[in-house]
């Protein structure tokens, strides 16, 4: 008789993996990005339903009659009645817009610098400190480059302004020019508004940026700004390096990181204070950034302009913070906050 089949061997254990860390448990989930379209939707609904979202029109001041020749030369359209914003945040000169949003990348950079100088993931990791700091700098550089070419300069006008012109927009005269500005000392040289190709230059000569698709730079900036700060502060604080919440070797922690938790030396109390304040700064910047995103959703731009600004921002955030979780080769370049 044939001998019975031998007992099947136990299933082979999976091959060991290097750096086997549960990244998803230490970083915000990608579904958290849904807060941004939800915020825009909430703002748009409020702007439609709330009576306080409607600005108050003012009567037009009387204008002196112009001589026919001058009126023909000016060829100015009938001006729209001015309005008074009924909400403080609907004013472009509100203090938060001037000193927070307009210089938003300064606050982003300051927050990241404070995290790098204070959080244990960067200050108490002797072996990984240089790599983590370098990769944090690469992430910041990518985000900064995207912000710069979208909103500031791209071999000339920024991409936002180039797209506006490509979709049929341009600079239009809205402020009647005085006689000396209409003609340069009688030489017949007029301001050619069609040659103005950036929104900043258009405003500086008294024109208005009209007729094209104006991607919301505020939405783009605020979404990238809040995302960078939140991903970095959560990642940098993912472990308690003082030994309170350690992963140990069971979670794939390196020996040097285990040593980081045990490295409690002099000056710990002072560093605790600096670490706490840098974290508070990060959450203050993120919170105010979200609030200003909601204000932008209520008071400024069309729905489509806000959506395009959002899509560009989400693509940037996905590339920097979500894609490295799925593509090891890209993670080796940009890293993950605190890893």
From TrEMBL:
Primary localization: endoplasmic reticulum
Topological type in the membrane: Multi-pass membrane protein
GO BP field: lipid droplet formation; phospholipid biosynthetic process
Biological classification of the source: Eukaryota, Fungi, Dikarya, Ascomycota, Pezizomycotina
Catalytic machinery residues: 218, 301
The entry's keywords: Endoplasmic reticulum, Hydrolase, Lipid biosynthesis, Lipid metabolism, Membrane, Phospholipid biosynthesis, Phospholipid metabolism, Transmembrane, Transmembrane helix
Protein name: Acyl-coenzyme A diphosphatase SCS3
Localisation: Endoplasmic reticulum membrane
Keyword Transmembrane helix: yes
Gene it is expressed from: SCS3
Biased composition (Basic and acidic residues): 245-264
